[in-house]
Amino acid sequence: MVDCTSKVDLKTLLIISGGIEAVPGIKLAKKMGFHVVVSDGNLQAPGFEHADDKIIASTYNIHDTLKKVKQYHETCREVNGVMCIASDVPLTVAKISSELRLPGIPINSAKLAMDKLAMKIKFKNDNIPIPHFKKISSEEQFREIIQEWGFPIVIKPVDNRGARGVLRITKEVDLEWAWRHSKKNSPSGTVMVEEFLNGPQISTESMMIDGRCYTVGFSDRNYEFLEKYSPFIIENGGDLPSLLDSKIKTLINDIVENAGKSMGIYNGIIKGDIVIHDGKPYIIELAARLSGGYFCTHTIPMNTGVDLVGNAIKMAIGDKIDTRDLIPKKNKHICQRFIFPKPGIIKKINGVDELKKNPAIKYHSIHIKPGDTIEIPTSHPSRAGMVIAEGNSNEEALKFATDAINSLSFIYK
Questions:
Q1: Mode of pairing for the β-strands spanning 35-40 and 12-16
Q2: CA nearest 286: which of 269, 264, 271, 275?
Q3: Which residues, in sequence order, are CB contacts of 49 under 8 Å at separation 6+?
Q4: pLDDT at residue 161 above 90?
Q5: Contacts of 67 (CB under 8 A, 6+ apart)
Q6: Average pLDDT, stretch 166-173?
Q7: Which residue from 300, 215, 296, 195 is spatially nearest to 260, judged by alpha carbons?
């Protein structure tokens, strides 16, 4: 299905995905003066409410999306740029940009971003610092590698997202179950293992411009629930500014730049998962897109004053980026924490209205409603909501965020 309105003299931006986390970017693009068309397979996608036009097609169905976008482009409006926000579909975006000759990353780069194993092989060949890794084809091979490498070790699908199927394996974990669970969460049935490197983990968000990397966002990832929800690896938000010193930040920026070039990305967005092990940064993986989890849309601009999403929109449309716009203008203390209610069927949620009145809470999102069943989280999409707080220090921002979550009460049936 393709739905288009009357032609007006505005450039048209196509945003692949109308999920709730894409809404801020959709609204921003409209504010910037673009005619926005949103493509999503969900008829009730929240982004459609804010779009000028809509295309109904699964974000992961490249053929169907491309077919309907071309129909829109030829019969409704010329598409001038394409991008995704908080949706891991760089290959869909790259196919469209290539077909319509729009700005974007190469198709081969997008393929690497969608295949963690192929990405790691490329990084290894190009001497990018990464954890030791190996593809595995059977439970027996999985057990053999554990005998050789020892615990802990990470097993993950090569082609999924949101921590689905990603497990930290210790001696307490049932290996047969772990192998089957990870394999089940791989669309291609392909699984890899990876060395678990101890150390602080960092989320980064960067723009590659003519082969130079400008890392705008550094967030200290919070894994306080690593043992509680073991073997699932569930992140509980992050803190900005990062406590890393400037030397380490420079090293991270340099390896992200080298990794971006390794993937063939000289102009585009790169979202990084980084670990600092024995004082050195290693890349766990990179995504060739704007991040989810409100990192690009909320915490980075709140912390730095940099409009990363606005600049990404300019890049997608082919406008020149002024790198001075990527220099932080402030350094606010921002804390994001997620909401993890106990398992059960929700009857009522109390305290949400108070969140709206709390001056320290700059943004909140509740993903559940009465009647929903809460289960123990096994991946990031199963988190129930989140708050973003601002304070005069990281510690104060954390207190505000924690107090706000604790003020919520969940009534169960």
A1: parallel
A2: 271
A3: none
A4: no
A5: 57
A6: 97
A7: 215
